[in-house]
Fold this protein.
Amino acid sequence: MADPTGFMPPLSPGGRASILPPPPWHYSGDLLTIEFRVDPSRVDELLPEPLELAEEDPGAVALIFADWQSCSDTFEELLDPVRSQYKEAFVVVRCRYRGETYSRCVYIWVDKDFALVRGWHQGYPKKLGSIWMTRPVRFGRAGPRLEPGGALGASVAVMDRRIVDARFTITGPSDTNGFVNALPMIHHRLFPSIEHPTRRALDELVTMKSYGWEGSEVWRGDAELTFHESPVEEVTRLAPAEMIAAYYRSVGVSWGEGTVLNRSDPG
Amino acid sequence: MADPTGFMPPLSPGGRASILPPPPWHYSGDLLTIEFRVDPSRVDELLPEPLELAEEDPGAVALIFADWQSCSDTFEELLDPVRSQYKEAFVVVRCRYRGETYSRCVYIWVDKDFALVRGWHQGYPKKLGSIWMTRPVRFGRAGPRLEPGGALGASVAVMDRRIVDARFTITGPSDTNGFVNALPMIHHRLFPSIEHPTRRALDELVTMKSYGWEGSEVWRGDAELTFHESPVEEVTRLAPAEMIAAYYRSVGVSWGEGTVLNRSDPG
Amino acid sequence: MADPTGFMPPLSPGGRASILPPPPWHYSGDLLTIEFRVDPSRVDELLPEPLELAEEDPGAVALIFADWQSCSDTFEELLDPVRSQYKEAFVVVRCRYRGETYSRCVYIWVDKDFALVRGWHQGYPKKLGSIWMTRPVRFGRAGPRLEPGGALGASVAVMDRRIVDARFTITGPSDTNGFVNALPMIHHRLFPSIEHPTRRALDELVTMKSYGWEGSEVWRGDAELTFHESPVEEVTRLAPAEMIAAYYRSVGVSWGEGTVLNRSDPG
Amino acid sequence: MADPTGFMPPLSPGGRASILPPPPWHYSGDLLTIEFRVDPSRVDELLPEPLELAEEDPGAVALIFADWQSCSDTFEELLDPVRSQYKEAFVVVRCRYRGETYSRCVYIWVDKDFALVRGWHQGYPKKLGSIWMTRPVRFGRAGPRLEPGGALGASVAVMDRRIVDARFTITGPSDTNGFVNALPMIHHRLFPSIEHPTRRALDELVTMKSYGWEGSEVWRGDAELTFHESPVEEVTRLAPAEMIAAYYRSVGVSWGEGTVLNRSDPG
């Protein structure tokens, strides 16, 4: 009899039970990117060896809120939107590896399981959270317009505690969407050994780029950002010392696969 | 000492604890309206006396999905979007009262408590549900475009059971958004007696109109609609006998107050 | 044609769509009751006229966490537990009315819509929240035993913000479950006018008693209690000035109807 | 600077941000085990090579509902129960490997992220779902007693669709809790390659046993079980051909580590 199949567990006769369909995955959504600086030591303490601080502006950090629709190459999730829509918030820093500078996600929260596991596949260290972001509107009084003065709020809660509050007010158009989350990503794909919990059964350093990118005009603005304490988070260590700028735009992008830069033998 | 205050319970010293801030309320959002016909007796059985079937096309029904942002006149909810965003789905029929034809909401599900109670204030018979609707996008492959061929899905679940599945495919522009949900609303505001559960402490027939309405272009299309059985719903009795048409648009609107047409004495 | 029926909206041909089945309602669950004192003015500011402070120990307050199963007289919800189980947390004070002393719920959060609306019927000012309470266990290491030293935690979050944190450590058996929530309840059933939002269409002062009460032994202990700020709560005004005691027990009870003490004419 | 730490991602300076604390993990909870038979080919199609059908009663399947409290060796989660309590439902079959018979979980749904990822560590193919199970009570009318005639309901929903409905009625005490989930577990820990999605970066066959087990008396009874269709599940292929028996009990158990039986080289 044929083996059960599926991109990820659970494997099943038809492969439909997998928590996640196989790549490629397509994404369309809205992004709020808030860039700020912390003391570089606060970035450094998040970088495992052999990753090193970026040479230029090493304390730069981006917090990104995203309101996504995503789907597999069957596109069937788009007609069952509970399987397509999700929100996420993530913290990105830059780092150096073998002479190249990369972007790296250090914290990320999402509100659906398929997105959580997709992140684990890509090396994004995803946890579940409750993420909200104001949507610009074209009509009525219950939302900002994409124009100077338009103001958005955004928040993250984990385990019933608010851990991030952010506000963004548009000042004008921009020809950049920031620089912290703009490089190829470098991530670790880590999975502990079942025999020795301090060792790893999977320990890969990977890089990846998306493809098929397209995006809207960008709006630049001023942001306020507050991290709150939680017993299961350490993001307050990244409390902004200085704000850089913030940006809002809509994008579309696809993702297929990554490249392994280094694989450590199972410990 | 001053009495505690608030538009609704809980009353509190500063009035901030109320489940809902006072009107007016402002709404901006996207609407998918699916119109269809059932045997008129299936509408009639939902109309309490003295409401009567509409004279023309009495079996016409609309199912509307809405993805909303809303706020009070302080607009503060817009910067804390967990208090502003909600989704809902509702079923509207038409009926006659004293020679006038009205729209009337017979079933409605929302996903936030403030929206539930706001509905009870207005006479919308709201329950909690999980509502999802595909969002059109401007970029990328993970969403339809607002153009012929663009396809959206929408669903409602209540108590962990899927009760509505809908699909909409755009055929072209439209100069109407339908006729079933287009009239002044007529609703009952009902609250049972605490002494005699079969009697009512509040029994008002009310009508209301929103104000400050503005809306986008309308897209017309074809829809499929399936209701599923649940022990706590009867919406399958409205299974479409014939589809009429479906429409998608964005709107903005405000709501302040209604008018009592008839008040029955507490039973 | 017969009118649509139901204890509450939505009315439907068979009455099954009602957000809540008719009373009587039966409850079985576990209660953690934490009693403490605040300055009596903090209780007084929560009492609308003509309610007055209790004569004895007027600043006494109880915070109660409850993990419930409930059902209607058909008992069918017990076999579909998503319709039966819910958790709640509520704040009770005492007050005087016409020479009698009553218990009164001033704040309450629940996690299901049927429980929310049931509260509104009874005059409990319910909002949705996320409520958690440790369960004592009989086996294994992942829970306290009901014996001295057993420790429970409990929390409430509203709109993605933690607003209550509580801890309880058992010191020994008790022959009382406290005194604040032990009297007949006196509640307001309030519903605003749809024409004049500052007036009320329903304004009843009601009292009620449950029946068929039975309960377990009571465990007494020490509690810690912290309220946290939220833009939509004012419970921090009840921050404990002094702890009294705390109690844990299991109970069963039924509720049928209440008595109207005073009804104000619609404003 | 020291590397960030944590049992699992996200790694952080203090290790507190990990989605899951390190083992050992302790569990206390209630289990409803429903055993039934399907055509053995329906089990076989879920077994990847080299796993084979059990020799005796190869079509036996168990569906288990569990209402858990769990914690790490710090026990701190027990005082913050949102981090401790979760519910799950899982399907277990038996199989043979190298002459030994094992239990194997083929489908499992949980309602918290820490439990999902803990399952992935152990080889349980967890997805998020909404799981409910009636709780026996000692007082009141809103729950069954643990005695003959006591009846429980249980359900699973995934992506807003009910996929499992179960009922259990106690007939009497039992000296067994069933045989399908009673053997050492054999699981695959699978993680896809980021470079070639049809290959695996981690592919381990593991076995494990819990320790520190203790349990209550067992109640035996009759069960009904219905699986419902979903586009993202295939559990209806396991629709019971014949019911065996069902059991209810409370247990406590701990888990520390497993053993790798076979590791395939990264593909």
Notes: Chain D touches chain A through 71 residues (CB under 8 Å). Residues 113-122 of chain D form the longest helix (10 residues). The longest strand of chain D covers residues 161-174.
